[in-house]
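Batch manifest, entry 17 of 40.
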Amino acid sequence: MSKLSPPARGGLRQVISLLGVEAPALWWSLLYFFCLLTGYYLLRPVRDAMGASDDVLAVFPASLVQWAGHLGVSLGDFTLQVLFTGTFLCMVLLQPVYGALVSRYPRRVFLPVMYLAFISCLLFFYWAFREELPGRGAAFFIWVAVFNLFAVSVFWSYMADVFSNQDAKKVYGYIGAGGTIGALTGPLVTRLLVEKIGVGNLLLVSAAFLGACLFAILKLRKYALQREQRLRDSSGEQAMGGSVLAGLKLVWSDPLLRALAVLMFFGVGVGTLLYNEQAAIARRFFTDDAARTAYYANIDLAVNVLTIFVQVFLTRWLMRRYGIAPLLLLPALAILLGFSLLAASPLPLLVAVVQVMTRAGEFSLAKPARETLYTRVSRESRYKAKAVIDTVIYRGGDLTFVWLHKLLSSMGSHLVFMAGVGVAAGMTIGAIRVIRAQRSLPDEMPVNASVDPA
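Output type: structure tokens
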């Protein structure tokens, strides 16, 4: 690869200087998020294939299949519902473990330990897929969901240690775009390699990307320390302390965190209802596998193109000029309108349009807006309460609405989307509550300030 010419290097420096942040911190953050989402999206097609597998013994342990059979239940008819339920239970059980880790160990310990644990799990699944271990599908499906939520949640918590609120408004859109590029790269790598090297070896490729994330974490450490020093605060390299269940208490007692939990719950509900009903509509209107695959591929392409465009050209401008309000309200109102139209006419093209609006609005606007708020709260809220919202509340919403869809789907798409209008209204109310609650926050919270839950 040829080196940049001096004018090109000068232009690049000017772009970075306009952002007003240290270039290495931004580039390492971009690399971190790119590698994280590339590694995840290498795994996601494998997870989805397991969730859609007709081989029940590949998905579930033989003992569980036999137990369900004795009860007269075919697990194959409830695959996704069982997997979502298992995911939620794992999230609940792991939350105290995560709380103990961040309470008792400093940042320099618990961040690398988490990623080393993720890499170790991938090495185990490499062996499980090579040996065709029964039940590997359910274990992998649940693990990928847990990994994704915890890893992404911790990433944004770490970014809130590295960047101030003002810097976050400048760079989070660009960092999000780096992740979106990773989300495009992962499926492309999977498509190119999976038939050549097999599923097991593909997991090793993902592990290599997580290794790059670990390297970026170490490189970003000094920038988090510099921010803490500028605030004249104690180092985040010290153990946080506090209760392992402090995150739950904070979410219950703090108005902003409660509002973020409500927004997350109904936001997940919108996505889950739309995802499941879209699958039913696609099966009904596209009987050919190739046509159905093309339909999904076009949606994914449109989502990623729109997301990158908004992240690069609109997110930073909107956030710096108007704050988080339009970034939260525009997606919520668009989804409310979209579900209202779908309740009247649930056609595949309209479903695709609403799906693109929903996912692109979440990735490019709503998520960066939510993440900037964590630069203005205590470190305990940032790591513990945020993890509760991003994992337990998120998967609780998944669990609630995947079963609600199962109940409503037999009555037709119109009823599903009518219920979705109510869920979208709940999401809009949650966004308004977040906007109101954040007005009382200071512009900059000391990195290690503590908040005692009531």
